[in-house]
Amino acid sequence: HFYDTGAGIYFSFMIRLEDYLDVYFKLWDIVMKVTSSMGGSISHHHGVGFVRMKYLNLEYDVEGLKLLEKIKKVCDEKNILREFTL
User: Can you tell me the distance from the alpha carbon of 85 to that of 3, in angstroms, rounded to the nearest whole number?
Assistant: First the structure.
C-alpha cells in the first residue's frame, strides 16, 4: 500500500518448523522494535490489532496510552465492544 506519507510493504513467509509460533512472534518482536527505532509506525491501516498491541508503548508514552483509554471509555461507555478495541 502506498500513501502520501510512505508505504506499507507486506511480506509472507513459509515456516515449516515445529516451533513456528515461537519463530513467528520473535520475528514480530524484531520487526516492531526496528520499525519503531527508525521512526516508523507500528500501526496498520486496519488498526494496531492484537499482535501489535503489546508494542503500543513504543509509539505512545504513558499520557498517550491514558488518552487512548479515555477515548475507549467515551466511545464505549457500557463496555459492550470487544475488550481492548477502539
Answer: 24
